[in-house]
Structures are given as C-alpha cells and as structure tokens.
Amino acid sequence: MKKIILLTAFITFTAVQMAQSQKTDTVVIELAHSSKVVFTIGDKKDLQQLRRYDFQGLFNDILDNLEDNDTLHTLRAINAEDSDVDEEDADTTEINNTEDSEDEENEDKEDDENNEDFRGRRDLGSCNSRTQASFNFDFGINNFLEDGRFPDDHDAQYAVHPWGSWSVGANTILHTDIGRHVFFEFGLGVSWFNFKFQDDNTLITKGENGVEFTKDPRTLDFNVSKLTAMYLNASFIPMYATGRHHHHSRWNYSDHDSFRIGIGPYAGYRLESYSKQGYTVDGDKKADKERDNFYLNNLRYGVRLQMGLESVDFFAAYDLNSFFVEGKGPKLNAFTIGVVF
C-alpha cells in the first residue's frame, strides 16, 4: 500500500513539474488604435537573451516591410553579442498575412476614412496605391532675361517691375512613388502671367513687322502698363526626398517629414493675352485694354526646379524658348520664382 501511495505521489509531482515547465507567459501591447504586439515567452531562461536584442532595429525592419506591402515575411533577430550563432539556433519572428473577415474590412475602412492621416491623400483607384492626387497653387514673380541680362540694364522700354509682375497658377498634381525616396509629379493646370512695365506709360502696339514698345504720347496720369498672358500647362518633375513620407497633399501636414528636390520639363499653350494701360482722369480711374496675341509664341517650354519641406515647395521656372515669335519682337526669355502651397 505504501508503495502505491509513493508511486502516486511521484507521478503527481512529476506531472506538476512538467506542467509548470511548459507554462507560457503572454504579454499583449496595444499600439495606435488598431495595432498590437504579442510576446509569448515559453521559457523564462530566454529573458536574459532577449535583454540583449536590438528591438528598435527589429521594429524598424518590421515597419519597413509593412510599408512595402510585404506582409508575408520572416525577420531574423540575432543576439548582437552572439553574432556567430548558427542560423538554425537563431530566433525568428514571422509576420503572416491573414485574411480578415468582411466585418473587419468594413471596420478598417471606416477607421481609415475617419483617420486624419487618410484625408487629403486618398488613393486614385485600388489598382495603383502608389499614385495620389492633390490640388496645388503656384504664386510667383516674373521677369525677362535678354542674352543673359535684365532688360533694365540697358533701359529698355519693355523692362518690367518684379514687384507687381505676378504669376498665379492652379494645378492638379499626380504624385507617384517609384521607390522609397524617389517619386514623380505630373502636373496639369492653368497659369496667368503678368508683366508690369517699369514705365507706366509704356504703349504696346502690334505692327506688320512686329511688336513695338514706345512711350504713350498722351498727357495722362498713367499708373500702370502691363502685358498679361494665360497658358494651359503640363509638367513632369522627378523628385528625390530624404525621408519616406513625402506625399504631396497640401492639406495633410503629417505626410511631410522630409526635404524634397527635383527638376524637370514643362510646356504650355497660350489661351489668351492682352495689354492694359491704367490712368486717372479728373480723379476717375480708367483703363484701356486690348486683346491680341502681340506676336507671342503660342507654345512655351522650359525647365522647372522645385524643392520643399513639409507642406510648402519653392520653385524656379525658366522658359527655354523666346517669349515672342522670332523676328517679331525682342529675344526675351521669361522666368518665374515662387512658392507652391
């Protein structure tokens, strides 16, 4: 009888010890509003080794793979002080892509739409999540270069005042990522270019041989003389960003954490042009406006340099072709310096 009791006690003690040795500890850490990290510890002897892991590097690798849509990937974390450990002995962490239920997908979609980061950078179709759209405004100042010099260097009648020679543009931009740091910006929009002449009584006339800039002979109190042209524009700017979050929705500040720079071509087609003279007669302001092409080139093309930080970009655009048709006006190349917001 004593033998049976001792045998029963031994078996019970052994079972308890085995159960305790197989007991696992689980820690669940909730992150953000829909993410969690689960740690399962099968043997507390592992704790000493886990203290030596570079968890920051491990999480950086995990987040990089998630951002690249690589959701079926094995990450291997090796003890930094045990770099010669065999691959078979190295601990692994697997991130497996699981199919969510229909209800979970609807909940995730609602969460995304309510998430502040989601607004302003909605994907253009599910077929290409790397392309996003934004609506941007250009605002800048204009001037001319003539053989590399400003026209006012030789007191030309067509010399312009940069302050008052404004350009305004409204553009739709397609932002397409092609890598972690490289993206393309495709732009389509309209721009208005005003060239305000330094001499307020400058008169623009279109003759048979070309456009002429002369002083208006009338004895009036002139206050402005300018030439305005409107263009339909298209641009293609390859960009490089130092950081990975560089989406160009101007309404979402959280997507801009890197410096950006790029250069590329643009082209425009003239839609309208006119001259305007403003003057005062007996205290009343009046204006003469004449709509004409004034031998302006219907096409304009050039190079645009763009750089930015956070939600604002700065740009410089230079026309490679002459503002006027060759032989019909001075050889002027227009340029603009401004800001995108």
TrEMBL record:
Top-level taxon: Bacteria
Organism in which the protein naturally occurs: Candidatus Opimibacter skivensis
Composition-biased stretches (Acidic residues): 81-115
Signal peptide: 1-19
Keyword Signal in record: yes
Official protein name in the record: Outer membrane protein beta-barrel domain-containing protein
Keyword line: Signal
Sequence segments annotated as region (Disordered): 79-125
